[in-house]
Request: fold
Amino acid sequence: MASIGHVAVGMALGRYEANGGSTRRLLASMALFSMLALLPDADVVAFVFRIPYAAPWGHRGASHSFVFAAAVALMVAAVAKWAKAPVGRWGGLAFLAVASHGLLDSLTDGGLGAALLWPFSNARLFAPVRPLPVSPIGAGMLSSRGLYVVGAELLAFIPFWAYALWPRRSARKS
Reply:
């Protein structure tokens, strides 16, 4: 899956978190939750270290699991407590952002699946229905296949983009 859908989910969660706050807070929340939604794909560094794709720490491995999402959520909650922000809200939304990544990747029509249940199982899982095209990795995104994937994701994630980017009431008044 290209990053389009992951960013859309992160931006929608950021909009929800900002809850009508200032534009600065909205933009910061959208950026934070988009980065969290993209975080599991930091595992592509495994290719540089010649870690096999199918290994537990390979691409779509442990970093795409619910346990990883929970660990990140706990770290975000700790930062929220330090920042005197709503701990449960930030932790819960962080969990949703990170966990959504593996779930969305399991909806793709290629690759090996996502290790959603790591460390309890190394099995790579796919959803029963796989409507999203898998994207090429690296420079392959510049191919016709890459453009097709980007277009398909833009369309598939219209509801998330609409929610995230729809003008707010305060913005319409000015």
About this structure: The mean pLDDT is 93. The radius of gyration is 17 Å.
